[in-house]
């Protein structure tokens, strides 16, 4: 029987993976702590490691796993910016779940937009306190406004469809434009500059890469419309948080909905309610009435968790049974020249 060790495993992981594992019969060990150099040696004797978005898969940790004969890491997520692909190349295969529910993430982006616009988070508290005043709750019609979507992959495309349903004009930017889809969906691809200066709402859906790191910075913020709403359900590192704070202070940004934060791995997914928050940047974000932070929950629907569990275990089954690497992420294929990328083989 193959043995899999899970890091950063929460009770909901147990529930959905145990259910999916009824069809596989693997021996699963759930470790609540995040993978780190300290606990990586506990992977000794297992056939696979299963990791999540904030597990440490840097070169030193990967070296420990390799020394302990781990040959495959199954990421139970889509993003893989926490994996040092260069250092694992040729040593440990890495597979992931490229698509589990683009609807979950796109719908959460819409939830952030709607809450920030109509201030339902404030109204909820007010009415419970018998405060029925409407002052400060004024929103705007989405109908007729312009949304700018950066990254039109699976999630960006679903979001575009929902926003079109609201009657919005949708602009998009993508490094690899999907022109057929855009024509059918009534979406206009534009250059980033144009997207920044025309959009009333900007939503980020591209991956975090060296190229996209801090793409939202002082300079790009200065090109946006005054009062723009910024939504990030992708990765925290896309936004230089201090620049965002400055833009909130000088009213350039009208509202920010953040499901991800560049330093989230210290806090997100854990209950810190009884502790002192030592991250002053995160603490500053909480002082703005027009900032809504959720703790990386955009993916968190029943459908998504079911798909994540099934695909993760199917990825491992394919590897264990015949060495097939479904949904592999490999260093070479992240390079544009790789022919397998065009076939959608592993990127
Ligand atoms: P995807 O791979 O289907 O789409 C990403 C798109 O970004 C592609 O169209 C790609 O061409 C484009 N892109 C790549 N580099 C770009 C650049 N420099 N500028 C503009 N566009 C660029 O991915 P997806 O499934 O739509 O997911 C998007 C991101 O959402 C993931 O990378 C992940 O970080 C994040 N995500 C977050 C959650 C969450 O719970 N908050 C859940 C899943 C995914």
Protein model, in words:
The chain is of the alpha/beta class and 347 residues long. The chain has 2 domains: 3-100 and 302-343, 3-Layer(aba) Sandwich (Rossmann fold), CATH 3.40.50; 102-293, NAD(P)-binding Rossmann-like Domain (Rossmann fold), CATH 3.40.50.720. Helices cover 35% and strands 14% of the residues. The protein contains 13 helices and 12 strands. The chain has helices spanning 11-21, 59-67, 85-88, 102-118, 120-128, 154-165, 179-185, 192-198, 218-222, 241-249, 280-285, 302-322, 339-342, and strands at 3-6, 27-30, 48-51, 72-75, 93-95, 146-150, 169-173, 188-189, 201-204, 228-232, 253-258, 291-293. The strands form 2 sheets. Strands 8-7-6-9-10-11-12 form a 7-stranded parallel beta sheet, sandwiched between helices. Strands 2-1-3-4-5 form a 5-stranded parallel beta sheet, with helices on one face. α1 (11-21) packs across α12 and α4 (102-118) packs across α6. Nicotinamide-adenine-dinucleotide binds at residues 78-79, 99, 102, 105, 150-156, 173-176, 205-208, 211-212, 233-235, 259-260, 296, 298-299.
């Amino acid at each position: 029987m193959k043995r899999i060790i899970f890091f950063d495993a929460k009770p909901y992981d147990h529930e959905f993976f145990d259910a999916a594992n009824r069809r596989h019969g693997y021996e699963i060990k759930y470790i609540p702590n995040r993978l780190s150099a300290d606990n990586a040696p506990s992977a000794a004797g297992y056939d696979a490691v299963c990791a999540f978005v904030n597990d440490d898969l840097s070169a030193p940790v990967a070296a420990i796993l390799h020394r302990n004969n781990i040959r495959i890491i199954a990421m139970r997520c889509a993003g893989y910016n926490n994996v040092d692909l260069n250092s694992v190349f040729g040593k440990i295969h890495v597979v992931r779940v490229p698509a589990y529910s683009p609807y979950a993430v796109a719908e959460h982006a819409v939830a952030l937009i709607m809450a920030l616009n109509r201030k339902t988070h404030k109204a909820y508290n007010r009415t419970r306190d018998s405060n029925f005043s409407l002052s400060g709750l004024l929103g705007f019609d989405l109908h007729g406004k312009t949304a700018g979507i950066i990254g039109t992959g699976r999630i960006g495309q679903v979001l575009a469809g929902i926003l079109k349903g609201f009657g919005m004009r949708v602009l998009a930017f993508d490094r690899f434009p999907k022109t057929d889809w855009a024509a059918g969906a009534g979406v206009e691809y534009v250059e980033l500059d144009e997207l920044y200066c025309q959009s009333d709402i900007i939503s980020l859906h591209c991956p975090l890469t060296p190229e996209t790191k801090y793409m939202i910075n002082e300079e790009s913020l200065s090109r946006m419309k005054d009062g723009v709403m910024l939504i990030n359900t992708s990765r925290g590192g896309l936004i230089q948080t201090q620049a965002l704070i400055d833009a909130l202070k000088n009213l350039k940004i009208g509202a920010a909905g953040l499901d991800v934060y560049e330093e989230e791995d210290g806090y997100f997914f854990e209950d810190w309610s009884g502790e002192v928050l030592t991250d002053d940047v995160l603490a500053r974000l909480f002082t703005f009435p027009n900032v809504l932070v959720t703790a990386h929950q955009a993916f968190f629907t029943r459908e998504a968790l079911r798909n994540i569990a099934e695909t993760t275990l199917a990825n491992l089954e394919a590897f264990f049974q015949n060495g097939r690497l479904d949904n592999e992420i490999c260093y070479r294929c992240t390079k544009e020249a790789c022919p397998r990328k065009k076939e959608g083989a592993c990127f």
